[in-house]
Amino acid sequence: MTADPKSIIDQLDDIEAEAKREWDQADPKDRPTIKSRYLGKKSKIKSILGALKDLSPEDRKTVGQKANQLQNSLNDHFVLDQVQSHRKAQYDHTLPGRVQPRGHRHILTQTMDDVVQIFYGMGFEVADGPEIESDYYNFSALNFPPDHPARDMQDTFFLNDEYLLRTHTSPVQVRVFEQRRPPVRILAPGRTYRNEAISARAYCVFHQVEGFFVDVDVTFADLKGVLSAFAQEYFGAQAQLRFRPSFFPFTEPSTEVDVNCLLCGGKGCALCKYEGWLEILGAGMIDPNVFTAVDYDPDVFTGYAFGMGIERIAMLKHGIDDIRVFYDNDLRFLQQF
């Protein structure tokens, strides 16, 4: 006598409803027995499946799939309920809530934002440029002739004969000059790269802010006024600047700018190497050759440029004596700022 597949499927549906109802109403200590009764080797499902041999191949496949689905459904129901019961047992509503720690901006990001905000208040716009630069924008347009010794001032990561990782944010200056006519007052913050040995005072990756202003009758006095205002705003009213003659290919005259050591008040300490002064930036009047390269008339326009390292600024303000700590990702250090 051939078994009726519909009758077997109806029995499986009844078993599923019965098993779940019995499980939900049972005492936890009785549940292992219930699970064995419905999913064990001698379960009701197994006994019903004994009738599969009397079915046709097509009906055998249909009923077999239904039986497998039932076993999976019951197993999921039993396991999920046990997990939820365990969680309820482990949760104590009287415990105080857990305070999740909140992240904050990296000290270098904070310093960059503070510097940009100060110059933004002086009327500077913010511009950006690519970190992979051409030799033209990074050197040639900034008055670095080919094979000129001035190129040796900046050890460079060259990608090929034409492209490199920018050594400063000064290429943004040229890109802006190509697109705009004076007056131009721009601030260019960003990440830069130099092929230097890593030490307490140097790193192969660092951040820089370049500023420049071009218009009619811009003077060195304007440059000194802007930098002095920045120093007193950032370091405090006690900050004083010292300007020393220097050389940069893209400025003439050029200067290096020092600030009085805030740790010792200019008296001399280990941080300032007992000199009382700390270098913070380089600056100068933009060289006429740079104007010529971007079709600015050097007989009409003048301008100044300055550049400062964000790591250096942060180290001076917070008394940090090793640049490497900015990149060590040590939370004991980062959480102080």
What are the key terms here?
11 helices; two-stranded antiparallel ribbon; alpha+beta; 2 domains; BirA Bifunctional Protein, domain 2; 337 residues; seven-stranded mixed sheet
CATH class of the largest domain, named Alpha Beta
The proportion of residues in beta strands is: 15-25%
The CATH architecture category of the largest domain equals 2-Layer Sandwich
* Structural classification: alpha+beta
User: Could you describe the largest sheet, including whether it forms a barrel?
Assistant: 7 strands, mixed
Number of domains: 2
Q: What is the CATH topology assignment of the largest domain?
A: BirA Bifunctional Protein, domain 2
Spell out the CATH superfamily of the largest domain. Answer: Bira Bifunctional Protein, Domain 2
What's the N-to-C terminus distance?
84 Å
H-E string = HHHHHEEHEHEEHEEEHEHH
Q: Which percent range fits the helix content?
A: 25-40%
pLDDT < 50 stretches? none
- Which strand order does the major sheet show? 1-4-5-9-8-7-6
What coarse outline follows from CA principal-axis ratios? elongated
Q: On the 0-100 scale, what is the average pLDDT?
A: 84
Total number of strands: 9
Count of DSSP helices?
11
In a nutshell, what does this entry contain?
The chain is an alpha+beta fold and 337 residues long. The chain has 2 domains: 5-90; 107-334, Bira Bifunctional Protein, Domain 2 (BirA Bifunctional Protein, domain 2), CATH 3.30.930. 39% of the residues lie in helices and 19% in strands.
Molecular structure report:
The protein is 39% helix and 19% strand. The mean pLDDT is 84. Strand 6 (241-248) and strand 7 form a beta hairpin. With 337 residues, the chain is of the alpha+beta class. The longest helix has 34 residues, at 57-90. It has helices at residues 5-25, 31-39, 44-49, 57-90, 107-120, 135-138, 171-179, 220-235, 288-293, 310-318, 331-334; strands at 125-126, 132-134, 163-165, 184-193, 205-215, 241-248, 251-260, 277-286, 302-309. Helix 1 (5-25) packs antiparallel against helix 2 and helix 1 (5-25) packs parallel to helix 4. The protein is elongated, with a radius of gyration of 37 Å. The termini are far apart. The protein folds into two domains: 5-90; 107-334, BirA Bifunctional Protein, domain 2.
